[in-house]
Design brief:
single chain; 180 residues; mainly alpha; Arc Repressor Mutant, subunit A; RNA_pol_sigma70_r4_t2; RNA_pol_sigma_r2; RNA polymerase sigma factor; transcription regulation
């Protein structure tokens, strides 16, 4: 069955088609959930909530643009909704700090370590960092998604980068001192 046929069957609440859509996209959507969640269990909850929303709103997909992109947007919004409801962004400090870049110039830092330190960021910084650096949203789009100002988005990104830079430098320093 083609993707278009599966979508059509999902619009008719066909459980088998829904199961196939789930199997086709669950691993990609789960990786998105992991980026926007504090831990594995929360990512699982977000994935389940995203699929509930996807199947409720599948009639709204009009086959314009990518179905996978549509799924991704719902999944991100589902994860972000959890933070909107907890007030993560209520404290807003728009003091601009200098933009920081994180340089990773050697093979001593593993992808697992990078993912770990990103996941350890405070929620407001991690969400903005992921949306901007990993999913290519603009500060204007992030502001609308998170109901924050563009300045707050920029400030949170800069703070996330500063924290990551410090953790990478600390990791490198510890690695260098152990190899001496």
């Amino acid at each position: 069955m083609s993707l278009e046929q599966l979508i059509a069957q999902c619009k008719k609440n066909d459980a088998q088609a829904q199961s196939q859509i789930y199997k086709l996209f669950a691993s990609k959507l789960f990786s998105i959930c992991l980026k926007y969640s504090r831990n594995y269990a929360e990512a699982e909850d977000n994935l389940q909530d995203a699929y509930i929303t996807i199947f409720k709103k599948i009639d709204q997909f009009k086959s314009k643009g990518s179905f996978e992109g549509w799924l991704k947007r719902i999944t991100i919004n589902t994860a972000l909704q959890r933070y909107r409801s907890t007030g993560v962004f209520n404290i807003i400090n728009e003091d601009q700090i200098e933009d920081v870049s994180v340089e990773i110039d050697d093979d001593t830092i593993s992808l697992d370590f990078l993912l770990q330190i990103i996941q350890e960021l405070p929620d407001r910084y991690r969400l903005v960092f992921n949306l901007y650096a990993l999913d290519d949203f603009s500060h204007k789009e992030i502001g609308k998604m998170l109901d924050i100002s563009i300045g707050t988005s920029k400030s949170n990104l800069a703070r996330a980068r500063l924290i990551l830079k410090n953790k990478v430098e600390q990791y490198k320093a510890n690695s260098n001192s152990q190899s001496l």
